[in-house]
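QUALITY CONTROL LOG
STEP: pairwise intake check
CHECKER ROLE: data steward
CRITERIA: each record must contain a sequence immediately followed by its structure tokens, with no blank fields

ENTRY 1 OF 2
RESULT FIELD BELOW
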Amino acid sequence: MKAAILNSPQDISSHPLRIDEVPQPSAQPEQVLLRVRACGVCRTDLHIAEGELLQLREKLIPGHQIVGEIVEGATPGLPLGTRVGVSWIGGIDGKCWYCQHGLENLCNAATFTGYNVDGGYAEYALARSDFVFPLPAALDDLHAAPLLCAGIIGFRSLRVAGVEHGERVGLFGFGASAHLAIAVLRTWQCEVYVSTRGASHRRLAESLGAAWVGNETEKPPVELDRAVTFAPSGDVVVAALGSLRKGGVVAINAIHLDRIPEFDYDRLLWGERQLRSVANMTRSDARDFLQIAAEIDLRPKVTVFPLDQANEALAAVKGDSIDGAAVIVP
């Protein structure tokens, strides 16, 4: 099969992914083999390709927002031809304290799709049978792919931030994840305030119903109940804190952050403001979000890249040169 292989992480401008032919895998017990129909491109893939996340394998196929069709390893509950989604967490041990307390997203022995096991930048991919999600017919391949990480993790971020219906919510950064989260917030009758550096991203936020849109140096005109940061920048975290009311919450939706600069505790954090990180997702998050996405007919804005252009897709994500999400099609 054809696949995009990462051997040595380096700046994406050096094209670290090599397109090559590799043996097609076979399903083992409790696995399914998927024919990949589409794979969303996530900023985490970029962190992996550029070595900002520790390299765990000498040779890796990235990609963890997989829409695929079961071609091997079918079960009565997952017959051949079933269209399913695969996300970032590809498995857990089910035995640790976190798994036993409803926190499977924090499992220390978790398997991560496209990081410590091969992912979906390929024509075929393996997945654990209990970590695939049958996709509603209302969600087509291209629009379902970005939902499987950007959408789910954005939804979890809203949960971690404790968003309630009708609140004022800030989104700091407006890429693949935020432009999906705003759709959920709008159905919850929330006022959404967007701060982002890209002019095209600001236009997109306006078109999707943001109550206010500003650049990264502008402060929302009201105090926020909740905020979610999507940019991998500590400066953005401080800006979000500075926009909160007392008792408000900032949820950091980033697996990698450059740093958090020194800030004034008395002015920015005192008053029972909270700063929380978002780590991974649970299967419950995935099921709940996909159901909501189908109900509200959520259709992310996507730009399609062929598998041969996987490096270019990651470069587009790094450069914020596309609105919405990038999707690779084998």
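ENTRY 2 OF 2
RESULT FIELD BELOW
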Amino acid sequence: MGLMDFIKGELIDVIEWTDDSRDTLSYRFPDEDKAIKNGAQLIVRESQVVQFVYLGEFGDTFGPGKHTLATDNIPVLTKLKSWKYGFNSPFKADVYYVTTRLFTGNKWGTANPIMMRDDDLGIVRARAFGTFDFKITDPKLFLKEVAGSDQNFRLDEFADTMRSRIVSIFADALASAKVPVFDVASRYSELGEALLPLINPVVVAKYGLQITSFIIENVSVPPEVEQAIDKRSSMAAVGNLNDYVKFQMAQGMEKGGSSGGMATELAVGLSIAQQIMQQQGMPAAAGAAAPRGAAAAPSPVSAELLSPADVAQALGVPESDVMTIIEAGELAAKKIGTSYRIKRSALDEYLAR
């Protein structure tokens, strides 16, 4: 091997990189400690950008095309190397290829719950996950803040590096959007589009990336909050409590056959009769007439005072429903010690409403 062949072997005359991995974000051209000669050819394909770095400082940037490395093409490097008479000797520099195409279907998610302030529920812990598409828009900033001097920076490394950063920005954007937790589930796609203008300025400024699509697939709250939401939905479905209790009474009447169902039927019948008599201008009877030929039953004081359990049995509803209408003031009751007692006349008055 002659001297000229040896010298040529120590110089780089063609710089190019063919990406066949589909998941590489940046790639440092392997120079094998060789120098780049004057007039070397630089080939940059579509969806690629080449960034020169000299002694830790950013040099010239090249877009797609075939470039001849001469003084006119590398003004920044010429200045950094202080070539007084132009580029006329081999030099060494790091050459980074940065992929600028769109990377789709990248997953994101909250490893830990994020705190949200909600107008309806107060402060809520929520988990979220989804996907996003992105592309590199500022190769210098991306190399500086994300990839660094990595020889071959791939998508899996990016996911580990950026997941926490994306989640942090998402949490801030979601707080700024002030979307109620109750509305999040029905507005996934709208919320993702609304968050893009809030997320992108931060991502572009900090990392040199642009997120083109941000998709929220699920936002979940802790089980106890879900139970509270279910209870709220149940209360909304019940509506008017008085109507609900009467509905329960009607259900008890349909069952029939039990003393509770029979008592409920008699009580409702008495209430209807009193309402008819009042509408016709007739005084309401103090009590129902005994059947002909039947002996009148005694009326002890205990028969006039009922416990919540007695009322519940008479109406065919749970005792908790009776306590609810007592506490709401809809059914008059007297509290004696820790127990309530209800006059039968108060029960008749409630049924007559």
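INTAKE CHECK: passed for both entries
DESCRIPTIVE NOTE, ENTRY 2: Confidence is low (pLDDT under 50) at residues 1-7, 284-301.
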